[in-house]
């Protein structure tokens, strides 16, 4: 009989033995791989090394000049986060960013959690595959030979030998993937509650469980931490109050009627993550069920601004339909590629079927280099050329009686030709940081469409919005659709003083000339 003869005569007990051998080998390998692994992610604007731990804390290492912080994770599993380079050059600006992120941490927490889950799944798969070596060895030797080897031994000795063999297999399997290091992954640290380190500071309740590395609280770092706490408190209070007040707007907002759906339009967030829960609360009050993002979510389009996109994703993570284009400040491809990775539909010049029969067309601002399917053309596509390309695409659909209901762009000028040629119902945009429209546009054939520019959702002055309060009035807009066509919209403004101002619902009387 060959070494695999047992496979031809199935024996439940033998199969169970092989399964136990595999399990006892695979689990230690998977656990070891997980606990000794690491991932590099962008967190809080830093390239960050993330390592799983079993100390039950999320520990953030801010580098050699700032103390580390940690907070209980609520379970045995924890994470060590070693923050690397970022773009800011002053500790004051850096600490302010930390404070603002701490006031809206949901996006960053979700990112860490998702990374840990992904690491665990990868480790489990590799452990399962390497674990097959143990039952494979058993099968290779053969059941009969194992019986011969085990017969003269005592049961206790046989069991001990089996355990040793499993340990050796697990160690060999793990050693093929894990690089040994003489240095400990986390240096020895002593901790004290932040309340004890700053006894004269009135800490917010959400910071009650925060601990700081003891011995590194110099007078300089103390001032930075106190400044961060002040910024944190202002940001938390300002945006939390707005979020709490938003549900009361329902009485001022037009409720969608039977057969209607509502989209929330945002634009020009410019990293102001504080407005994301406010925007979501307004969307809920107005009955919105999908998101339209007209671009400029960031200030530079850099990968360090991933926290802004993570925050938007966290605020609308339960929406099935989320559509986005990049603005002129979203330089490069990072923003559109990152949003696509988060599950957003990024519009690149192709027609997309939206919810309830809505047909969407859109493209990123050509000035951001996010040119989508038009990149393949020789030379650079100019703004005017893009405007014509969008109009041609919309009119081609209209000629097939598959009319585009909404053209989503960053700058409304990109959609002007499509409106003038009567090929689209509504152009939605941002860019100007001021509301413009809705303005009717009558084409030569009598078709009436509309152009609308949303203000800055982030309350941005130029390209900067990140701060404990708004730099200028912020705005989102509720867009109502019926049978796939836009029928009205209603802007909601947030004043810099922390008050809402709800605009009237404006009907859109779109008319299409007969073919």
Main attributes of the structure:
about 525 residues, 13 helices, 21 strands, Purple Acid Phosphatase, chain A, domain 2
Question: What is the mean predicted local confidence, pLDDT?
Answer: 79
Helix and strand content put the structural class at alpha/beta
Q: What sort of overall outline do the alpha carbons produce when their principal axes are compared? A: globular
CATH architecture of the domain at 252-507: 4-Layer Sandwich
* Main pleated sheet: 8 strands, mixed
| Total strands | 21
Number of helices: 13
Work out the helicity level. Answer: 25-40%
Radius of gyration: 29 Å
| Low-confidence spans | 153-183, 369-379
By CATH, the topology of the domain at 252-507 is Purple Acid Phosphatase, chain A, domain 2
Percentage of β-strand residues:
15-25%
Distance between the termini: 81 Å
In the CATH scheme, the class of the domain at 252-507 would be Alpha Beta
CATH superfamily of the domain at 252-507: Metallo-dependent phosphatases
Polypeptide structure, described:
With 515 residues, this protein is of the alpha/beta class. It has a domain at 252-507: 4-Layer Sandwich (Purple Acid Phosphatase, chain A, domain 2). 36% of the residues lie in helices and 20% in strands. It is built from 13 helices and 21 strands. Strands 8, 9, 10, 11, 18, 19, 20 and 21 form an 8-stranded mixed beta sheet that branches. Residues 153-183 and 369-379 have low confidence and may be disordered. The chain crosses the membrane at residues 12-35, 120-140.
């Amino acid at each position: 009989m060959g070494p695999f003869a047992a496979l031809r005569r199935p024996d439940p007990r033998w199969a169970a033995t092989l399964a136990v051998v595999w399990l006892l080998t695979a689990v230690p390998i998977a656990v070891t791989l997980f606990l000794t692994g690491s991932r590099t992610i962008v967190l809080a604007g830093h390239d960050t090394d993330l390592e799983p731990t079993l100390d039950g804390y999320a520990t953030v290492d801010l580098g050699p000049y700032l103390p580390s912080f940690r907070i209980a994770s609520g379970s045995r599993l924890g994470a060590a986060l070693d923050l690397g380079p970022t773009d800011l050059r002053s500790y004051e600006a850096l600490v302010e960013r930390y404070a603002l992120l701490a006031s809206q941490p949901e996006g960053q927490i979700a990112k860490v959690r998702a990374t840990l889950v992904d690491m665990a799944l990868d480790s489990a798969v590799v452990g399962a595959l390497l674990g097959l070596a143990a039952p494979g060895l058993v099968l290779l030797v053969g059941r009969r030979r194992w019986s011969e080897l085990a017969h003269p031994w005592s049961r206790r000795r046989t069991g001990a030998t089996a355990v040793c063999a499993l340990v050796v297999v697990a160690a060999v399997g793990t050693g093929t993937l894990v690089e040994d290091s003489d240095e400990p992954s986390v240096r020895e640290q002593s901790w004290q509650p932040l309340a004890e380190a700053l006894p004269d500071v009135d800490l917010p309740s959400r910071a009650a469980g925060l601990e700081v590395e003891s011995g590194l609280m110099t007078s300089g770092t103390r001032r930075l931490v106190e400044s961060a706490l002040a910024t944190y408190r202002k940001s938390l209070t300002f945006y939390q109050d707005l979020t709490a007040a938003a549900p009361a707007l329902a009485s001022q907002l037009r409720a969608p009627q039977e057969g209607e759906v509502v989209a929330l339009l945002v634009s020009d967030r410019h990293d102001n993550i504080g407005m994301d829960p406010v925007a979501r609360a307004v969307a809920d009050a107005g009955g919105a069920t999908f998101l339209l993002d007209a671009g400029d979510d960031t200030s530079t389009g850099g990968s360090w601004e991933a926290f802004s996109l993570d925050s938007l994703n966290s605020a609308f993570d339960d929406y099935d339909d989320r559509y986005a284009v990049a603005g002129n400040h979203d330089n490069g491809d990072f923003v559109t590629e990152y949003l696509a990775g988060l599950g957003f539909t990024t519009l690149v010049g192709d027609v997309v079927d939206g919810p309830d029969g809505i047909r969407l067309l859109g493209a990123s601002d050509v000035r951001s280099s996010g040119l989508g399917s038009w990149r393949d053309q020789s030379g650079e596509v100019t703004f005017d050329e893009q405007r014509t390309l969008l109009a041609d695409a919309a009119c081609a659909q209209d000629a097939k009686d598959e009319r585009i209901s909404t053209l989503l762009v960053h700058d409304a000028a990109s959609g002007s030709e499509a409106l003038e040629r009567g090929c689209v119902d509504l152009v939605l945009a941002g860019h100007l940081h001021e509301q413009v429209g809705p303005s009717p546009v009558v084409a030569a054939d009598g078709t009436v469409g509309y152009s609308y520019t949303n203000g800055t959702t982030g309350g941005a002055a130029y390209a900067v919005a990140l701060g404990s309060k708004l730099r200028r009035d912020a705005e989102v807009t509720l867009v109502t659709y019926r049978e796939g066509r836009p029928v009205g919209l209603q802007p909601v403004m947030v004043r810099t003083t922390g008050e809402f101002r709800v605009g009237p619902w404006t009907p859109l009387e779109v008319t299409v000339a007969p073919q």
